[in-house]
Amino acid sequence: MAEDYKPMWQELGLDIEKHDALLEAVGQMYGENFLSQENRPKGMEYFDFVVSEIHGLRIKELVDARKAGRTVIGSFCVYVPEELILTVNGISVGLCAGAEFAFDMAEKYVPRNTCSLIKSALGFKLAKVCPYLESSDLVVGENTCDGKKKAHEHWQSIIDNLYVMDLPQVKNDNGRRMLLEEYTRFAAKLEELSGKKIEAGKLQESIAIVNNKRKAMNRIYALRNADPAPISGLDALLISQVFFYDDPVRFTDSVNAIADELEERIKNKQGAAAAGTPRLMVAGCPMAVPNWKLPAIIEDSNAVVVGEELCTGERGHAYLTDENGSTVDEMMGNIADRYMKIHCAVFTPNTERLEKIRDMHDRYNADGIVLYNLQFCQPYQIESGLIVDDLKKSGIPVLQIDTDYSQEDAGQLQTRVEAFVESMKS
Predict the structure, then answer these.
(1) pLDDT, tens digit, for every residue of 217-233?
(2) Other CB atoms within 10 Å distance of the CB of residue 411
(3) What is the mean pLDDT of the chain?
(4) What is d(CA 190, CA 330) in angstroms, rounded to the nearest whole number?
(5) What is the reported pTM?
(6) Residue 335 in contact with residue 200, Cβ under 8 Å?
(7) Measured CA angle at 138 (ends 137, 139), to 5 deg
(8) CA atoms within 13 A on the CB side of 81
(9) Disulfide: which of 80, 105, 335, 389 matches 75 by Cβ 3.0-4.6 Å?
(10) What sign results for the dihedral spanned by CA atoms 342, 343, 345, 347?
(11) pLDDT value at position 142?
(12) What is the spatial distance between Cα 212 and Cα 247, in angstroms, rounded to a whole number?
């Protein structure tokens, strides 16, 4: 693959040597974590292919689309509405922020005690190894946390096409009004960039496309309550990660196909792990490609992950946008209403997230919860204390893990997870 796409990568301005090193490392990690699994659904072959071409064929599609006049919008967050991007014939893609790469370069801009996601995003840009960044006509940053807010001030000096979206942090009428205003401002920016007007019919069509993608994901997640679990947590996470990169219609068809397969596996009592295997749910910070460390450790500890309360999980696709409405204003309001339902830790108070975690634990027939926090991610780390207390009062076993993208603590985490699994057995 590398030789075929090197001219394209060079044209995008990537550092080929560093990029080759990144692809080699990711390929090795993928083989060890995913291809070594036994009894995987056959439909996962599509997602294996997507990952094998994640910096190749998909980037070529973006390059060709831009030449054909389409606009590519890169973002890091589930609060950036794909519905609006599709309405101007744009393409929404997630950006690189899931590996410990070029942190030494990033730490010239931000302190060492900055969360790995922020340092990773900076590192990928500074090292010139993310073709999604370099293929984007607009890079959307969002003010979800103080770390990102201040990091964007550095981003302004290294990214010419940065657009910063402000977000509310209280769920009330004022917060909803603020989000609607930000989405209206973003819609105007998309119209300016693309030269296309957002019209009611096209917006309604785009909402339906994104809703269909979410419905397909919801099918997969609803099937994970079966015992034996029909799909591993690693494979389910991978599908959720590809959600942010792939063509939406193609992705929806592929996810529905694997959901059909999972239904057959359930009928035949065929699982990714044996019936009775301890079932864990993961809650907390997002896991961007190639951050597969914690699920791999859990599933290497004689347990199976059956649900994720993450942005790269149910939090990202659980809610649908109301497709009713005859005007752009009505549908813009529907979009704002949908995104206000997301239970990000930046909101205060955030009791709805506590309720959501308990609800997911019950729906997935989980035996316990692993609460995953990136080190120095203040919103999630601070909120985790409230969650641990709440879960203990509810009698739900919980293990809190604070970690980063490195493998330095993998052995220690394995020991802790194994002990947690054994405690649930007893």
Answers:
(1) 999 999 999 999 999 99
(2) 10
(3) 97
(4) 18
(5) 0.97
(6) no
(7) 130
(8) 32
(9) 80
(10) positive
(11) 96
(12) 13
Nearest to 367, CA basis, from 303, 297, 285: 303
Q: Distance between alpha carbon 127 and the CA centroid of its chain, in Å?
A: 22
CA within 13 Å, CB half, 24: 6
User: Buried (b) or exposed (e) across 247-280, using 16+ Cβ within 10 A?
Assistant: ebeebbebbbebbebbeebbeeeebbbeeebbbb
Q: How far apart are CA 194 and CA 63, in angstroms?
A: 15
